Amino acid sequence: MTAGPDRKPLDRSFFDRPVLEVAPDLLGRVLVRRTPDGPIALRLTEVEAYAGPADPGSHAYRGRTERNAVMFGPPGHAYVYFTYGMWHCLNLVCGPEGHPSGVLLRAGEVLHGHERAHERRPKARNDHELAKGPARLATALGVDRRLDGSDVCAGPDAPLGILTGHPARPDQVLSGPRTGVGGEGATHPWRFWIDGEPSVSPYRAHTPRRRNSTRRQIGT
């Protein structure tokens, strides 16, 4: 990974903005996961915005809990949650402290560290499938609850960081309903993706849970 203008870390002011500004602006940015085995760099191609107490689809809609506490803290931190009893999802907290909102990182293109990503995602048929969906993204990067609360603005030694990358042009960015969100938040066009990117995950509408199901929707 060479140095250059596109490798400059984003500072906290980038995240200290309304979630609907931050979410589309993350497209084309580079997420870096640093591990003892070496780094993995991923270009973000798909995200979803969740607006806290103003958003029925958000984990923070009903207030603070032990699970979502990071969302109520300062911007520029990772919120990692466990879902469906088997998967982790990675989000970035944004907006002012005390006003919880976050961006779910749904998909990306691996730029560096393909070997390490394939080791974690052996069923991926090609590079485009390594991080095609939020659970796959977290798995490929080795993200779990141990990274909940990580400061992505902490510098080059932090386990997670966001670099400037090459932001997507406005004409490349599409939006639509969020995947798997039902109820009052079902129609919010707060999913953003780069048009034509093969790593973008397919849209799936919300499916009502069966009475005996314990599954939880993916979202923040």
From TrEMBL:
Keywords: DNA damage, DNA repair, Glycosidase, Hydrolase
Sample GO molecular function, one term: alkylbase DNA N-glycosylase activity
Keyword Signal (UniProt): no
EC id: 3.2.2.-
Cited InterPro entries: Formyl_transferase-like_C_sf, MPG, MPG_sf
First-level EC class: hydrolase
Domain of life: Bacteria
SUPFAM superfamilies according to UniProt: FMT C-terminal domain-like
Glycoprotein recorded as keyword: no
Region described as Disordered: spans on this chain: 196-220
NCBIfam families associated with the record: 3mg (TIGR00567), PRK00802.1-3 (NF002003)
Family label: Belongs to the DNA glycosylase MPG family.
Protein name per Swiss-Prot or TrEMBL: Putative 3-methyladenine DNA glycosylase
